[in-house]
Specification:
The protein is an alpha/beta fold. It is about 30% helix and about 25% strand. The chain has a single domain (about 5-219), classed as Ribonuclease Z/Hydroxyacylglutathione hydrolase-like (Metallo-beta-lactamase, Chain A, 4-Layer Sandwich). It has helices at about 40-45, 65, 70-75, 85-95, 160-170, 175-185, 205-219; strands spanning about 5-10, 20-25, 30, 55-60, 80-85, 100-105, 110, 115-120, 130-135, 140-145, 195. A six-stranded mixed β-sheet has the order 1-2-3-4-5-6. The chain has a five-stranded mixed β-sheet with strand order 7-8-9-10-11, covered by helices on one side. The structure holds fe (ii) ion (FE2) (2 copies).
Length: about 220
């Protein structure tokens, strides 16, 4: 059975930057990041598989554009299992959104079939409960708000794209120490593509983005 990775891009009515959701389809399927409550119906309609075939929703952290639509999705597709950190699962439970998330810790793996996910705990990288997702067979790092871009970077030359990635990281990372620790872990991965939750895919010179953010962590 073939496996596929899709990127959905959902515009936002509130004028904020568009969000990407990534769907991995194999024997099991996982949607990485969901979107806000205002976006969730559009995201569901954009899925190339019926929502009844969706197995997991990976929630990189507890924030509206990552999981604001989760309660609505679980109404429509109660078989879906949220996957997140322990801290995030606590929020989902205490806000009455989900009673039984699949909690993952640093280095935990989740096989979808041929596709294999590994989770990287990155606490206090942007949010206190953050995890990133790495797909091992293709070398894709689903980096959520790390390496994201706020402005439209389509067509920008590499140096301008890099400048935007660095500027955004300077603005939204609360702890340089936590950022540095996360980047140490990221450097050990064999990354071919960085797939952020907002902005362009980073497909070449991936190491240069990692080392640029290491400089941010030191500053
Ligand atoms: Fe976020
Ligand atoms: Fe985000």
């Amino acid at each position: 059975m073939g496996n596929q990775v899709y990127r959905l891009t959902t515009p936002r009515s509130d004028g904020e930057i568009p969000c990407h959701q990534y769907l991995l389809v194999d024997e099991l399927s996982a949607l990485i990041s969901l979107g806000t409550i205002q976006m969730v119906d559009e995201v569901r309609e954009s899925l190339p598989i019926p929502v009844s075939r969706l197995t997991y929703v990976v929630t990189p952290h507890f924030e509206g554009d990552e999981c604001g639509g989760l309660a609505r999705l679980l109404e429509l597709a109660p078989q879906v299992v949220p996957v997140c950190s322990h801290t995030c699962a606590r929020q989902l439970f205490r806000f009455g959104i989900c009673h039984s998330s699949l909690i993952v810790s640093d280095g935990d793996r989740l096989d979808l079939g041929a596709l294999r996910l590994r989770f990287i705990a990155t606490p206090h990288v942007h949010q206190w409960d953050s995890i990133l997702t790495y797909e091992e067979t293709m070398g894709i790092l689903f980096s959520s708000d790390l390496f994201m871009q706020r402005k439209d970077t389509w067509g920008l030359p590499p140096e301008a794209l890099m400048a935007e990635v660095v500027e955004v990281a300077r603005g939204i990372m609360p702890s340089p120490r936590a950022l540095g620790q996360a980047l140490e872990k990221i450097q050990e991965l064999d990354i071919k593509v960085i797939a952020p939750g907002h902005g362009r895919l980073l497909t070449s010179n991936v190491e240069s983005y990692v080392s640029a953010l290491k400089d941010v962590a030191k500053s």
